[in-house]
């Protein structure tokens, strides 16, 4: 016998084991080992399929783009205008993107002075002079100190002025990547791509060709170039690098995909499209003048994703150990 306290202490020191019953049965034994083999085969297949034996490293990337093409357009009030890369590529854009002008509203021969603001007369001092002046036969408007005449307030031309030409512009995308953990460097212009190849390659025949026709990019993003060109928008060019750096299965090639990134429904978003303003200055009789351009266009954002994998003995051991531990726990629970 023991006291109440000592009995509790002895209870804490007890150790229990499961009772095993051994059954001699060919049918049950065969079923057991068949299930074990199936489970182990599944584990091995999933390990190979998901490359759980590899160490992974995310991509580090840089992108440059080179546009090519010339457009001849008939601009109201200016006549025939030739647009080259300098004209239609717009201002310097953010990293990994380029811009193409597809439509434009032009206000000619502006000079600094006083003119009507094209609004009803509710005039306050400041840039507005406070005066209400005659705008046309029926209307009066606030007078302002500004570049006069003020910017044209009309909808962009339909069809877009540069749409037909811009659709055939091409862009060479140069993408350099690196996987620091493996000291592996590559680019989308592969070693076998020489000058002759780049002059003649076409993405319809070669999915690795780094030269893209703008119309094809927009079409593969499931958009109509002529419609998109009127007010502009944003198209994403996605480059995915999924690289296997093991010697026997080495493969590291880019895959391209395209999608529209901005909201395209004008009735569902405020200020749809994409535009910016720039001016070209000149002097007449000693007076500084300018031509103001409100340019609509398409911005192409190049986004690079990817990872590289390479055999790692440590990763293999960790995967096997963790998998077998789960397998052992399941086996014990079924006993």
UniProtKB/TrEMBL annotation:
Pfam families: P2X_receptor. The keyword Nuclease does not apply. One of its GO terms (cellular component) is postsynapse. It is found in: Cell membrane. It is a multi-pass membrane protein. The chain crosses the membrane at residues 30-49, 311-329. This is P2X purinoceptor. It comes from Gadus morhua (Atlantic cod).
């Amino acid at each position: 016998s023991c006291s109440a306290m000592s009995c509790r202490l002895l209870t804490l020191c007890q150790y229990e084991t499961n009772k095993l019953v051994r059954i001699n049965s060919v049918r049950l034994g065969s079923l057991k080992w068949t299930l074990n083999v199936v489970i182990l085969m599944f584990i091995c297949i999933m390990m190979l399929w998901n490359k759980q034996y590899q160490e992974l490293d995310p991509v580090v990337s840089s992108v440059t783009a080179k546009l090519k093409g010339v457009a001849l357009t008939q601009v109201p009030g200016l006549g025939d205008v030739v647009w080259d890369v300098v004209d239609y590529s717009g201002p310097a854009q953010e990293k990994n993107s380029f811009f193409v002008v597809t439509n434009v509203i032009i206000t000619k021969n502006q000079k600094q002075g006083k003119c009507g603001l094209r609004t009803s007369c509710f005039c306050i001092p400041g840039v507005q002079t406070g005066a209400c002046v005659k705008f046309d036969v029926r209307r009066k408007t606030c007078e302002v100190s500004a570049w006069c005449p003020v910017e044209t307030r009309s909808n962009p031309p339909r069809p877009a002025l540069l749409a037909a030409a811009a659709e055939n512009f091409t862009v060479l995308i140069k993408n350099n990547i690196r996987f620091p953990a493996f000291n592996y460097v590559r680019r989308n212009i592969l070693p076998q791509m020489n000058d002759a190849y780049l002059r003649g390659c076409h993405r319809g025949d070669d999915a690795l060709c780094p030269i893209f026709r703008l119309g094809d990019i927009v079409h593969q993003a499931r958009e109509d170039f002529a419609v998109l060109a009127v007010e502009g928008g944003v198209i994403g060019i996605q480059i995915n690098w999924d690289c296997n750096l093991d010697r026997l299965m080495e493969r590291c090639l880019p895959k391209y995909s395209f999608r529209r990134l901005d909201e395209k429904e004008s009735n569902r978003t405020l200020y749809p499209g994409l535009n910016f303003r720039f001016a070209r200055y000149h002097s007449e009789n000693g007076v500084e003048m300018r031509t103001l351009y409100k340019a609509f266009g398409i911005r192409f954002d190049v986004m690079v994703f990817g990872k590289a994998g390479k055999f790692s003995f440590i990763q293999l051991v960790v995967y096997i150990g963790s998998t077998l531990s789960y397998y052992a726990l399941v086996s014990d629970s079924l006993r």
